[in-house]
Amino acid sequence: MAENVVKLQSSPAASPMPSHAHKDLLRIVIVGHVDHGKSTLVGRLVYDTDSLPEGKFESIKAMSERRGMPFEWAFLMDAMQAERDQGITIDTAQIWLKTKGRDTVIIDAPGHKEFLKNMVTGASQADAALLVIDAEEGVREQSRRHGYLLHLLGIRQVAVVVNKMDLVNHSQDRFHTVEQEIRKYLGSIGVTPQLVIPVSARNGDNMGVRSANMPWYTGPTVVEALEHFSPTASHGDLPLRFPVQDVYKFDERRIIAGRIESGRLSVGDTLIFSPSNKSAKIKTIENWSPDDKKALPMTAQAGQSVGITLDEQIFVERGDIASHVAHAPIETEVFRARVFWLGREPLKVGGAYKVKLGTMEAPVRVQAIERVIDTTDLNTVAAPQVERNQVAEIVLRARRMIALDEFQTHPRTGRFVIVDKYDIAGGGIISMEGYADQRELITQRSTNITRVEHAIPHAERWRRNGHKGGVIWMTGLSGACKSTLAVALEKRLFEKGYHTYILDGDNVRHGLNANLGFSPEDRAENIRRVGEVAALFAQAGVIVITSFISPYRSDRERARSAAGEHFHEIHVKADLATCEARDPKGLYKKARSGQILEFTGISAPYEAPEEPELTVDTAAQPADACVDTLIAYVERNFRI
Amino acid sequence: MNRLDQLEAQSIYILREAFNRIDRIAMLWSLGKDSNVMVWLSKKAFFGQVPFPVMHLDTGLEFPETYAFRERYAKEWNLKLIADACPPLETIDDSLPPASRVAARKTAGLKEAVEKYQLNGIIAGIRRDEQSMRAKERVFSPRNAEGTWDFRDQPPEFWDQYKTDYPPGTHLRIHPLLHWTELDIWRYIQREEMPLVPLYFARNGERFRSLGEIGITFPIKSTASTVEEIIAELEVTRTEERAGRAMDHESEDAFERLRADGYM
Question: In this predicted structure, what is the pLDDT of residue A290?
Fold first, then answer.
């Protein structure tokens, strides 16, 4: 039996790896409005690079004749009967070109609005894009939308092809009009096309050879233009991101498997796994070779699918992101994203979805849709939902802390997809603008801490004071009258014999929090400290009243968990217009004129409490009445 | 990382996703060059194990060399082999052209196996550059309860996020070699010094470029008797890889019909 099997004799030493293995592979997607000639351009490109297999030309000719049509280049890529019969590309397809120096994959993408999900599928795999525009029709709806999506998908290399020049008598004027229009649009979304080329794909003008019909154009042909693009660089120079894909225990080894999305790792490195924040050292980088002769690698880099073992048996699971300690990802349960929506049902505020980021999955809720962007004119509107094929900026909130990055600095771990029931219904790129990295707030640095048990039970303290201790946490916009109410409440409680004290924003910043500024992280730390101090006052038996805007739910939840059941969240409510009209400290005026950046309610979010213990509406009621409500609340809830 | 390293890393990522996300999967092992690469990649992905069964859809019509290869490497590679016989020709839709009808026995065999072993996922070694309908495939591609492919409405797939959430009754095809070309496969076989069924290498001026059943697969004229020579031949050839597969060419839509019905 063995003689039936050929065991190859070659060895890498005897025959050095031929050039192909090292040849670059460039992937180019062809996008643009329906019927602007994308599939035709692909067919012609394959022909002009001499990449057409034997007999293919004849078989396309036969297919065209069978349908009573002139020769149809699009049939090369449009393989489905439905595509050929209707003359429309339904799904994306790929074909390999034999170009000099490197190999090129051409990805054809449908231009019909119905099939945007297929366009995204194709375009997301590309290093570069050719945006095809019909010279006669000019820039249309999908020309713009595709341009915008290329940008969102992270494709930075774009060239524009103005097609069907034969239909406008190869007019230079018409070409310039279309060129101006598309350059203006792409420029406004931050895309600079590397080239704009006039062609007639059907006739081959400026495809493989320069057109005699357009002597006024002296730039590169489309085939030459392909050489202007380069394959997307791997992210080896960025900080390490190694999302855990699986943990294997096939034998005595416990192997943590995954693909390195950016950076590199080496044996001996200390890794931190987020968001669990456990760390351990890399013991080995595992590998399989047929005869087990090859030594295990000592280092691995971005793009590789690897497996590692650790020096300690810490609990690690799929979805954790391993990094080096000094450059760990952001930890948060709320983040901002720019999303494109492909779902059959619209994306809605309050809607529950699942986010998949790397190998992590987390349930999320849409906290806000900040703006919906019309990709045709880039106008933005406020809307309660995002319809299919729209782009929007939204805020998402997860139930637990998740590890992520901003897209701008870490493209691979700064993007995610949204799953609606069973379907991938959208994709998004992350920005943390206005939101804090909470890593520092949840990481306990010191170890060997043992809590000292008090000898005096809470009940004893309460009995001496005649009431329970606790935190009255007032949250609301600037100008909602938090401080006014706090001061009045404290005075009346004091007069009634309660032990009470106010923690006020400006006061704590003079001492306890004097080292903090106004960055999102510092603001979050400010509130964290206030929450902890308030909890200590409450344990001491005092009714502590805090008066802070505290706009973020996560910060207030942290304060709540510090004080436990003795925490009372009071929403001091007033609409923005009322607060702005009051403007007791003149801050709104400054925010509107741009003197204060990231001002809550104007240029930074206020996340209203979902289930506060009490709401007082200072826009609807006079202050005295509000204080009465508060007094009644305290008397009811702080009674022993 | 060179190109073969990139292809390998991507395929390993896909295999690991399939193994993690789908309960009860099997890999199709046609014994051809591509499915051998797939088995090889699995051993790399899972550090020497192939943690799911490999399945040969046996029509009884393979070449003797192919069966010999199966017996030897199922053992040597420590594979959990399933090799059930496909249903006979008489049970297959007789409106199909003759070669397609033979090929459709595999589709029927696959449907039986999916039911018998209650499989939720099938890993198959198809590639985009083989055939223009395959060029439209997804990496994770759903099939309904009857095994059919709704190619007119496929799920979006981007950023290496695959659709793995489905209502009960759906099963998935996973295509870890979708992004490879025929030349990539041969370069990889060369680099990894992988064994192959000898029919790929020329004898008496002929060799098989694509390996299938006796009677519906035909050899090409070639003198390439080593991997190096095959690579040199493929670098300049203008014929299509599956030119020797009769069922691809019986009518314009023959392959679309086969695939829509669940063929690989």
Answer: 81
CATH superfamily entry for domain B3-180+250-260: HUPs (3.40.50.620)
Would you call A94 and B72 a contact, using CB atoms and an 8 Å cutoff? no
Q: Which residues of A touch B193 (CB under 8 A)?
A: 7-8, 10-11, 290
- Are A386 and A338 in contact, with CB atoms under 8 Å apart? no
Domains in chain A: boundaries = 22-228, 242-326, 332-433, 456-637
Please report residues of A whose CB lies closer than 8 A to that of B183. Answer: 20
The pLDDT assigned to B250 comes to 79
Closest Cα of chain A to B47: distance in Å?
A: 5
In sign, the C-alpha dihedral spanning A615, A621, A626, A628 is: negative
- Given pLDDT bands bounded at 50, 70 and 90, which one contains residue B185? very high
pLDDT at A9: 38
**What pLDDT does residue A224 have?**
92
Q: For A332-433, CATH number?
A: 2.40.30.10
CA distance A131 to chain B (A): 19
Query: Residue B141: which pLDDT band, with cuts at 50, 70 and 90?
Result: very high
When the pLDDT of each residue in chain B is averaged and rounded to a whole number, the result is: 92
CB A516 within 8 A of CB A441: no
Task: Sketch the domain layout of chain B as residue ranges.
Answer: 3-180+250-260
- Rounded CA-CA distance A513/A483 in Å is 19
CATH architecture classification, A456-637: 3-Layer(aba) Sandwich (3.40)
- So what's the pLDDT on residue B226? 96
Residues of A in contact with B45 (CB under 8 A): 257, 305
CB contact under 8 A, A63 and B68: no
**Nearest residue on chain A to B41, alpha-carbon basis:** A288
In CATH, what class is A242-326? mainly beta
- In this prediction, the residues of chain A whose per-residue pLDDT falls under 50 are 1-19
Torsion of CA A526, A529, A535, A540, to 10 degrees: -120
**Selection from A173-182, A583-592, B230-239, B243-252 with the highest mean pLDDT:** A173-182
Judged against a pLDDT cut of 60, whether residue B19 lies above it is answered with: yes
What torsion do the CA atoms of B81, B87, B89, B94 make, to the nearest 10 degrees? Answer: -120
Task: Kindly report the CATH number that applies to the domain delimited by A22-228.
Answer: 3.40.50.300
| CA of A164 vs chain B CAs: smallest distance (Å) | 26
User: Which of A15, A93, A304 lies nearest to residue B9, judging by beta carbons?
Assistant: A304
Q: Which residues of B touch A234 (CB under 8 A)?
A: 1
Return phi, psi of residue B74, to 5°. -60, -40
Torsion of CA A559, A560, A565, A566, to 10 degrees: 50
Q: Smallest Cβ distance to B136: which of A10, A93, A424?
A: A93
> Is residue B163 within 8 angstroms of chain A, CB to CB?
yes
Of A6, A76, A234, the CB nearest to B201: A6
pLDDT value of position A458: 84
Residue A446 has a pLDDT of 53
